[in-house]
Fold this protein.
Amino acid sequence: MDELLSIGKFSRTCWLSIKALRLYDETGLLHPAYVDPVSGYRYYTAEQASTARAIAILRSLDMPLAEIKDLVTETDPDRFRDRLDAHRAVLEERIDRHRHMLQRVDHFIRKGAVMAYEFTTTTVEPVTVIGRTLTTSPESISEVAGPAYHEIYEALTGAGITPIGPPWMAYPETEGDVWTIELWVPVADGASVPPGLTARRFDGGRAARTVHVGPYDELGMAYREMEVWMGKQGLTPTAPPFDVYTNDPAVVKDPAKFETEILWPVK
């Protein structure tokens, strides 16, 4: 027993709490070298201290316990590095997300608690659009729409059709948890319709208008304010509202700089 350390002495050696060591044991991260069958006391070897400290460091890096367990038992150096690289990518994505959140907070600080929009009415020209109709939850719009737009543009390219304007998204049904959305790309009159897509003629006319600068998931605020403004102006909707994405998120990487024109046909 002389070569073994009690959990108290081992905790002082590792600079870790007894509570943490018990957690590591219970989760299978680091078992004691010996457990007294009568008293239940845990004992460790001095060599286990380096593993205990490595676990603590990985926990401080916000690595989940399950991943730490795989990492500390990994014997292949290449797979060990791959696991760390994977966690590094997770942390980088989290940092980017938090950076965008900070930018949005700064945006609210500059503009005040309520987004400031300038509303006007404009005349939208008639145009032919080609696209498709989808159903999705409000929270999943961006996730669903991104691949769908990619497919639409691929189909148009394959058919030799060149868009004549940026893409649209219309919202014909927004009741309940499942929304109907329409993804459209303006094209020249008379363009052939690729398989799997549909075409329609947008008649144009008068519309309420504003521009939203910022992430797409904040568009709801703009629509709420636009609806209030329309009511005060005595304007009545005549068709579903739609977005026009005036800059390309594939080019403009910062969501805080996304520009979206919002149009709502009215009379």
User: Anything to note?
Assistant: Residues 75-113 form one domain. The first helix runs from residue 7 to 14. Residues 121 and 208 are 4 Å apart (CA to CA).
